[in-house]
Every structure is written in C-alpha cells, then in structure tokens.
Design a protein that fits this description.
Oligomer: single chain
CATH class of the largest domain: Alpha Beta
Helix content: 25-40%
CATH architecture of the largest domain: 3-Layer(aba) Sandwich
Length: about 260
C-alpha cells in the first residue's frame, strides 16, 4: 500500500499502447493515456468506443493483449485488481456494489485495509494495538460519513440507501483504502441532480487535497465541471485529448457523437 502525506499527490497512472480483443473483435487499438497526479482525468466517447474496456484494464479486472500499465515507474500490467488496490488504486462501479445486509458504517469498516484483528496470532498477543487500530478505523469511517452527510444513516442497512447515497458510500469505501488514485465508473448514473452537485463538490475537494481521479462518464456536464483533462475514445482508439473546451470544439469529436451537442 502506498502511503502519502495529506495534500501530497501520489504517482501518475499511465497506459501505453494498450490493445485488447474479445473473440477476434478488437475493442482497444494501441491506446495510451496518462492520469496526472492530483488531477481529474475524464475518459469519454460514444457507446462502443472502448471506454469501459480501457477502464477495466486500468483497474486490473481485465488484462490487455499487449501494452503496459504503469503506476509511477512501476509496471503493474499483470497485477490483479486486489493487488492494485493494495498499491494505491481503488475503483468504484457503475452499479454500486454495497454489502446491502450490512449497515452503512459496517460497509466502511470492512473496507479498511491491513486490519490487525484478522491475524489470529496478534488477536491473542497484541490486543491493545488491535483496539487502537480499530478505534482509528472507526474514527476515519465516522469522519467520512459526517463529511458526506451520511452519518445519520450510519446504522441503516446499506441496501436502503438511494442510488446517489450508494455512490457516496462507494466513494467513501474507496477512501477507507487510503488510495491516492481513484477510478470512478459513471458516478452520475442513477444520481439525482441535487446529490450529483454534492458528489461533484466532494470529488473536487478531494482533488484539491491531493487525490487523483480517472472518470468514465456519459454526463458531459459533469465532465465539464470536474475534469482537468479529457481523453475522447472512438472505435477503440484515442481520437483526441485536451481540456473539455478543446475536445468539444474538435469537429471529429462532434462527428463521433453523431451530432449530439456536447
């Protein structure tokens, strides 16, 4: 697990010449991008462009046919999603994957890494250290719930939350991992506009505190509000990159979206 001081961005996450195919169908063609430390990077494109496939390669849930994924200078191409989480990369999902039978607070506590209480030996030989660590985890979880206005729901079943509240909870679980890099898979999906504004403000605050984000999203208003840099994919390749204003002014991007106003 990568540890960093508060406000200190972690390493960059980059992908070089990523190729991926399913059953002979090429979904990614030599895709390269760089998620800069302490920035919010957007990945957009029309349906079928390869966004989700690229996101899964970055997260470690899919291995590319060729190409390299790096965390700083380290090659992590063959690390699993679990191994990447331990190295500072957390992800959320388009459909929130809360443990609905557990409470909201319990969902955060089970996400806490390196729990010394999980060691049978330490459980009998180092109870004081375990109690101290568990107290710190509880304090961190309560602070996150307070910050996202979910504290009043701490003892409620996670399955009873609204779609937007579940997205906030999932982001909080990623933060419990203390990961400097967070991959957000369509954070706006199923979220009402009022809560979306709250979620966006929270993400910006986290960016300003040194967190790094990569976001796959269809909501162009959210991309415009959040992203420092945007990569546009089309037909499995990077069509263009730049600020939101730069990429949406590109005629090729407008054509790729078939006349949809961006």
């Amino acid at each position: 697990m990568i540890h960093r001081r508060a406000g200190e961005p972690g390493p960059a996450l980059s992908a070089s010449d990523i190729a991926l195919s399913y059953g002979g169908f090429q979904v990614l063609r030599r895709v390269s991008l760089r998620v800069e430390p302490g920035r919010i990077t957007g990945i957009v494109g029309p349906n079928g462009a390869g966004k989700s496939s690229l996101f899964n390669v970055l997260a470690g849930s899919v291995a590319p046919d060729s190409g390299t994924v790096r965390l700083g200078d380290r090659d992590i191409t063959r690390l699993s999603m679990h191994q990447r989480a331990r190295n500072g990369i957390a992800r959320t999902f388009q459909l929130a994957r809360e443990l609905d039978s557990l409470t909201v607070l319990e969902n955060l506590l089970v996400a806490w890494p390196d729990n010394p209480g999980e060691s049978l030996w330490r459980l009998f030989t180092d109870r004081r250290a375990i109690q101290k660590a568990e107290g710190a985890a509880l304090e961190q979880a309560l602070a996150l719930l307070r910050r996202t206005r979910l504290l009043r729901l701490a003892d409620a079943p996670a399955g009873s939350l609204s779609g937007g509240q579940k997205k906030l909870l999932e982001l909080c679980r990623a933060l419990m991992l203390e990961a400097p890099i967070i991959l957000l898979d369509e954070p706006a999906a199923g979220v009402n506009p009022a809560l979306m504004d709250e979620l966006a403000a929270f993400i910006i605050d986290l960016r300003d505190e040194g967190r790094t984000f990569a976001i796959v999203e269809h909501n162009m208003d959210l991309i415009a509000a959040l992203c420092d840099k945007v990569y546009v994919l089309a037909d499995g390749s990077v069509l263009t990159e730049g600020t939101f204003a730069e990429v949406t002014a590109d005629r090729r991007v407008q054509d790729a979206y078939l006349g949809v106003t961006l």
